[in-house]
């Protein structure tokens, strides 16, 4: 499977599944302790996934993690650690990125269609986001 992990200071900032990815059956690429789980599946015709529900659990989730699925286009992803840009990478059509920690910003390099998935409730930008000074200082 085309799997890339972005790290800084021994901290995982993101996991990227690069297209094309060919999982062997059902593979979860995130750590079982991540607050959002990322899996890829390659299932045979006729395979049955047993009907189920997810049990209600009362858990504390200290950080929002999110995943982006790029259906079309190309974007540069900038990674930040303690208000400092530390890395960047390009994601392309078909890639999936799961953002685990640190900060992030994006520049759309081609017309892009994507889906964003994250856990938890979204209240508003003031309650849910803290904008990084670095990002704005370099785009003025």
Radius of gyration: 17 Å
String of helices and strands: EEEEEEEEHH
- CATH arch. level architecture: Sandwich
- Uncertain stretches: none
Can you walk me through this structure?
The chain has 140 residues and is mainly β. It has one domain (3-44, 60-137): Sandwich (Jelly Rolls), CATH 2.60.120. Helix content is 6%, strand content 46%. The strands form two sheets. Strands 1, 2, 5, 6, 7 and 8 form a six-stranded antiparallel sheet that branches. It has a two-stranded antiparallel ribbon with strand order 3-4. The longest helix is centred in the C-terminal third of the chain and has 5 residues, at 133-137. The protein is globular, with a radius of gyration of 17 Å.
Summarize the structure.
With 140 residues, this protein is mainly β. Helix content is 6%, strand content 46%. Strand 1 (3-8) and strand 2 (11-17) form a beta hairpin.
């Amino acid at each position: 499977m085309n799997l890339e992990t972005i790290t800084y200071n021994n901290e995982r900032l993101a996991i990227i599944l690069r297209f094309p990815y060919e999982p062997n059956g059902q593979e979860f690429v995130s750590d079982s302790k991540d607050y959002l789980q990322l899996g890829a599946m390659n299932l045979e015709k006729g395979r049955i996934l047993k009907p189920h529900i997810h049990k209600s659990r009362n858990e504390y989730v200290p950080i929002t993690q999110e995943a982006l699925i790029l259906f079309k286009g190309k974007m540069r992803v900038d990674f930040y650690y303690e208000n400092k840009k530390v890395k960047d990478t390009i994601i392309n059509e078909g890639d999936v990125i799961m953002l685990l920690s640190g900060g992030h910003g994006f520049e759309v390099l081609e017309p892009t269609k994507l889906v964003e998935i994250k856990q938890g409730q979204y209240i508003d930008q003031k309650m849910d986001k803290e904008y990084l000074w670095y990002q704005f200082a370099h785009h003025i």
